[in-house]
Amino acid sequence: MSIRSLLTIVLCACLLGAPTTQAAPKTFKLCWSIFAGWMPWGYAAEQGIVKKWADKYGIDIQVQEVPDYVASIERYTAGQFDACSMTNMDALTIPAAAGKDSTALIIGDFSNGADALLLRGSGKRIQDLKGKSVLLVENSVSHYLLTRALEWALLDESDVTIINVSDTEIADAFLAGKGDAVITWNPILSEIRHKTEVSQVFSSNLIPGEILDLTVVSTQTLAQHPEFGRALTGAWFETQRLLGLPTPAGREARARMAAAAETTPEDFDAQLGTLRSFYSPRTALNFARTGKLPDLMQRVAGFADAHGLLGKSGMGLINLGIEFSGEKPLGNAQHILLRFNHDYMQLAADGKL
């Protein structure tokens, strides 16, 4: 055998036997906060459902609970997370208003009593709100609910005094005697009802479909990495399906979510009853295609403009636009900053994820 042939054999053996360095999977981050409609994210991460779907697409997804709701959205807006759970109004008034192009990837549910206005004492009516002080997270969906309640009562915002309190402190503040009324969401609502005497005088079940609970993703990240959107959508609807099952497996899943929310399974089931949850991608898709989203977001944008949340000019939708799948956009079509994209829910509904 020639020296050249021997060297060739040795070189091939070295190459075949050399260890290969595999690139680490791309990592993405999602944040969520405690709320009945978003508990599935914590459960899906804990039970390995998120990892299963991330592995399918060769990526890594880190799921983190952020205790303060508004802070979670602000951290997403600042680029610390690639996706975040939030309402439709907050998606418009925080990231979109700050110039972060965001996509509503998943519509998980709409509030159907999960957000409510409570007045101290029994036997109160919504008209008793006049002259009262109201605890709420200012400029959040709770503030929006207040304006809708005032419309029903034929009152103006000037007829009440708003006290801004974060969602992490609002229950303790109200239970300690601060304020005459409080507007918040579950599980905080449930805690207050159990600990003091109140009258529920208005809730989101009177404005069905107006408060949407979403999973929102950076549009740039989604465009560059559609596998991230696929994995999130797959993990979400696998968990939602389990959540809605009247079986031992479904009950166990709900019990685990209840424990994470620091409540009982019975109370958690009651909280879920105040949501119109979309347990399958088809039902979420059907809701998204009703054609009501543009009118809904027009109303929300009107509230946001009236409170200077889209810029002090009061002409927010001249400065930014909202896009809908299959619908005419709202506002500035040349500067879309919030997008309702049904493509991934469609893939899930068609079994093509």
Question: Care to describe what's here?
Answer:
- The chain is α/β, with parallel strands linked by helices and 353 residues long.
- The protein has two domains: 27-110 and 211-350, D-Maltodextrin-Binding Protein, domain 2; 115-206, 3-Layer(aba) Sandwich (D-Maltodextrin-Binding Protein, domain 2), CATH 3.40.190.
- Helix content is 43%, strand content 21%.
- It has helices at residues 3-17, 39-46, 49-56, 69-77, 88-96, 141-152, 170-175, 188-195, 219-224, 226-243, 248-260, 265-272, 281-288, 293-306, 316-319, 343-349; strands spanning 26-32, 59-65, 83-87, 102-111, 115-120, 133-136, 161-164, 181-185, 198-203, 212-218, 275-277, 321-324, 330-331, 336-340.
- Helix 4 crosses helix 5 (88-96), helix 5 crosses helix 14 and helix 11 (248-260) crosses helix 12.
- The longest helix is centred in the middle third of the chain and has 18 residues, at 226-243.
- The radius of gyration is 24 Å and the shape is globular.
